[in-house]
Amino acid sequence: MAERKKQVRFTEQADLQLLKEVVASNPYKDKSKWSEIGETISSDGFTIDSRRARERTALLLAQHKKKDSENKKKSGVDEIYDEKASLLDDILSLKEEEDEKKNEKEKQGQDVRKRALENLSKDEEENTPKKRTSNTNIMDYLRQKSEQESKSRREELRLRSEELKLEREKFELEKQERKQRLEVERQEKTMMFDLLKKFIK
Question: Mapping DSSP to helix (H, G, I), strand (E, B) and coil, where does residue 46 land?
Answer without folding.
Answer: strand
